[in-house]
Automatic annotation (TrEMBL):
UniProt source species: Mytilus coruscus (Sea mussel)
Protein name: Reverse transcriptase zinc-binding domain-containing protein
Domain Reverse transcriptase zinc-binding as annotated: residue spans: 101-174
Pfam families found in the cross-reference section: zf-RVT
Matches recorded under InterPro entries: RVT-Znf
Amino acid sequence: MPDFEEKINAMWLQKISDMIKGKPTIWKTLYTYFLGITTRELMPELAENKYSHSEQFGKNAKKLKELYIQYRSKIKLTENITLKEIYYEIIGQRKNSITVEEKNKEIEFTNIWTKVAGIKNDIHREFLYKIIHRAVLTGEKQIDRGIRGIDPQCKYCNRQFETFEHLFIDCKELKMFRTYVIQNGQSEDLNFEISKKSLLLVDIKTELIPIIYGYTHTVWACRHFEDTLNLYKLQMKYHKDKEIYRKYN
Ligand SMILES: [Zn+2]
């Protein structure tokens, strides 16, 4: 659950939002803290509301204070903001500029770029380059870049946030398809798996690249189709993509 912490933070911030709006809350610790002396330092207008003040600090006071200071200028905790919106705002604040090499210092990338350079077809080379960089425009990336009005959930399961790892490695709805592709890949290399590393082309032999391409391109291309959960159709698309790759490279 990579976004678990952000979800919790969103819940805290929503409580703060309720507090600022003057909504009654059962969370007394928060009330006490936010109406205490520290509140006045943070937000003078709160000192003028109708609640009585207290200097008593709750045990969560430090965490709340940090969160509030971190986000108060970035997220408008307005009247109508929902928990979900607060959550997506938090996700959107995350810094995402670290390169794939910096993120994976233990991996030797020279060999990987040599493999990419060896892909003859421009379109296939560019797609796999984006896969290695985790640069395909997932729901997560769109939220990160401030693109709103989109559905950032995974199109296959509709339950999880569409991150690169969820979509290509973890989504439960694609488990059977992944098993199929893994078995197909293992017919060429017994150690083949679909993992963070193999999707960086780490230790992937040239003969296996069509399989990586076929798999990732199928998952990517089919995610907006209504009937993609049909395993047979995913398999057909996979073989077609794999063969097209082989034909042009
Ligand atoms: Zn999913």
